[in-house]
Amino acid sequence: MARAGAILICVALGISVFVGLGNAAPGRTWHVAVGADSADHAVQVLDYYPRTITVDAGDSITFTMAAVSDHTVTFLSGAQPLPLDEPQKDGRVRFPSNVAFPQGGRTYNGSGLANSGLLSGLGKSWTLTFTKPGRYTYQCLLHPAQVGTVVVQPAGTPYPMTQAQYDHLAAQARTQALAAGAKLRAATRATVSESANGTVYTAPMVGDPARRLALYRFGTDTLRIKVGSTVKWVMTDPDEIHTITFAGSGALPDFIVAAPQAQGPPNLYYNPKVLAPAGGASHAGIGAYYNSGILYPVNPPGPTSYSLKFTKAGTFTYWCVVHVPEGMRGTIVVTQ
Ligand SMILES: [Cu+2]
């Protein structure tokens, strides 16, 4: 009697499991962290944690920002990355709306574009449901080396790892990356040399793409120089853009300006005041606006460096307009 009862219970459980699958019950939701950074945001890790995750068809992944640098989560399905600028006939340069705003809906079957849009700010998240088994790579449109993988198994396949196991490994990887970033920061300093035009300080803007690291500082945070010296900022990071911008007595310009439309999201444009170099080759004291324009990665067409000769004593703070949330600024102290 007891045995018959146990069999009945097993059958009942079996049926209930079967019915559960047949009902396409909502899948599990997994979590992937986007980016990581140091407490002062100087070191940004351009990565996803975990970098590879295995889920079942019907499951969802919530991607959540864990750093202040903007990122996207973008499934291109083999297509080329989206361009990051759209020159307009009127001379303005548009920031493309298919990069800035979510595209492709809430599910992904391995084809077409699925894009989170710009994820700006800690805790910002985007959730995508995976409907078809396969191995899918995704990337950040702003940082092409920032790539992750989602493996989707057929529904009902046992999972190779739990979320807690992923989180544990991710925490280790994050700690290692941030330690490497701290080392990079400590090793990055402005260097000094003499030239026919006087003393030149070279301030490097570095990254370590193999470790998915970018340093959002200018080597030496406060650089002390003599009147008549030149500071030359040089890009060595192959994946980033930066500016050298002294706001002077005005406000620091925004990198992107939004133009509201009657309907839908605003049009976004690169601020022309940031794109255009300004101020000439020598810094003549407080009050004026000096700007490098966009400094590009080491690949052509550039420019990849910017020089300014300091002709008056004073303390001058400058920013990278692209990376204000990361605190990318420096100070030049010029003395007689
Ligand atoms: Cu920057």
SSE map:
Blueprint: H1 2-22, E1 29-37, E2 43-49, E3 52-56, E4 60-65, E5 74-75, E6 86-87, E7 93-95, H2 97-100, E8 107-108, E9 114-115, E10 125-130, E11 134-139, E12 147-153, H3 163-187, E13 191-195, E14 198-205, E15 207-208, E16 213-215, E17 222-226, E18 230-235, E19 245-246, E20 256-259, E21 267-270, H4 272-275, E22 282-283, E23 290-291, E24 305-310, E25 314-319, E26 329-335
Parallel strand pairs: 1-4, 3-12, 8-10, 14-18, 17-26, 22-24
Antiparallel strand pairs: 1-2, 2-16, 4-10, 5-9, 6-7, 7-21, 11-12, 13-14, 15-16, 18-24, 19-23, 20-21, 25-26
The chain binds copper (II) ion (CU).
Can you tell me about this structure?
With 336 residues, this protein is α+β, with helices and mostly antiparallel strands. It folds into 2 domains: 159 residues, Immunoglobulin-like, CATH 2.60.40.420; 148 residues, Cupredoxins -  blue copper proteins (Immunoglobulin-like), CATH 2.60.40. It has a 7-stranded mixed β-sheet. It has a 5-stranded mixed β-sheet with strand order 13-14-18-24-22, with no helix packed on it. The longest helix is centred in the middle third of the chain and has 25 residues. It is globular, with a radius of gyration of 25 Å. The N terminus is likely disordered. The site of copper (II) ion has 6 residues, from loops.
Total number of strands: 26
Class of the largest domain in CATH? Mainly Beta
Structural class: alpha+beta
**Helix-residue proportion:** 10-25%
CATH superfamily of the largest domain: Cupredoxins -  blue copper proteins
Shape, principal axes of CA atoms: globular
Strand content: 35-45%
Total helix count?
4
Largest sheet: 7 strands, mixed
Strand order of the largest sheet: 8-10-4-1-2-16-15
Q: List the helices and strands in order.
A: HEEEEEEEHEEEEEHEEEEEEEEEHEEEEE
**CATH third-level topology of the largest domain:** Immunoglobulin-like
